[in-house]
């Protein structure tokens, strides 16, 4: 076995063919990191001129101007091949030492233990505790910090049909999708020049619920890097209020006619009462829609989502909703349209991406999981992030963090 640097082209070909690949390991993500001050290296192991292991190594001066190294989503290799894993780790350690780095972080795209839709461990399911043990023997330490998500929610698409998928959704989820369709909500893709529309959605959402948002430049850079390859889509759900108003007025006329036809028929008074309630609700919607048209014009944007489309899985990476328009359920229709797109374009998985891993219904983060759970699927727990100390600066770095955390606790008191 020979440790070697790789060209971007060599790495790309190996990456695209590897079963553990995910978009975070792509050269395009490396290019994005370069814009924020990181350097990119590609290294690997060859056996008889054939690449058998590889990784993208990102590096950037951090603690005391020493280099932090990060391999997004870990090494691309067979983690069960302990000899190969040991050799690659040792050689990367030497590579980093020569570059005066103090730490290597990895977060492999490996399931820790298989879980079901409720987050419960599947008996005799996939388990990579042995890999964790091997990494620790090689000097890696489990990190409490995770730059990437550790818990996800995933819907398998293989051998499924649209009808089967819809049938397996929860009743409420199906109803919300059908209601959105009935209202005439449209889902469409944004162009590069419209990305400010998506940014406005995420800005409103992040300020409302307190999650960190990305910059418009980030969304634009991702578009430039991935869109021409068909690997990213920015989608919005929007409602034409004029058309919605016209449909509601038609509904009112239909309800009036049905009520009139029932008249005093005693056997149908229950039905008449129900139709009367529907009529009053429709009249309320007309008034509400008039206010919306006056405030926002003929059309409103309801929700948005950013989707990564590569590596055989569709990833629902970022999203947002306008709270005042949540009743239209645009976010449900976006999911359904993108699930259909993924299914019809050969993707094996639809990855709803991050959840907290806290399945307590009282948790403030439970709602995100509950929304994704409505589409069926299962919880995925990855093995998490690991740190490999390279030299004594690592201990100084950890001590510095401990001191800062202690000071923060004292200040809070």
From TrEMBL:
SUPFAM superfamilies in UniProt: Acyl-CoA N-acyltransferases (Nat) (SSF55729)
Statement: the UniProt record of this protein carries the keyword Endoplasmic reticulum: no
UniProtKB keywords: Acyltransferase, Cell shape, Cell wall biogenesis/degradation, Coiled coil, Cytoplasm, Peptidoglycan synthesis, Transferase
GO terms (BP aspect): cell wall organization; peptidoglycan biosynthetic process; regulation of cell shape
InterPro entries according to UniProt: Acyl_CoA_acyltransferase, FEMABX, PG_Glycine_Bridge_Synth
Single GO molecular function: aminoacyltransferase activity
Chain segments annotated as coiled-coil in the UniProt record: 245-299
Ribosomal protein among keywords: no
Family under the similarity heading: Belongs to the FemABX family.
Stated name of the protein: Peptidoglycan bridge formation glycyltransferase FemA/FemB family protein
Source organism of this protein record: Candidatus Fimihabitans intestinipullorum
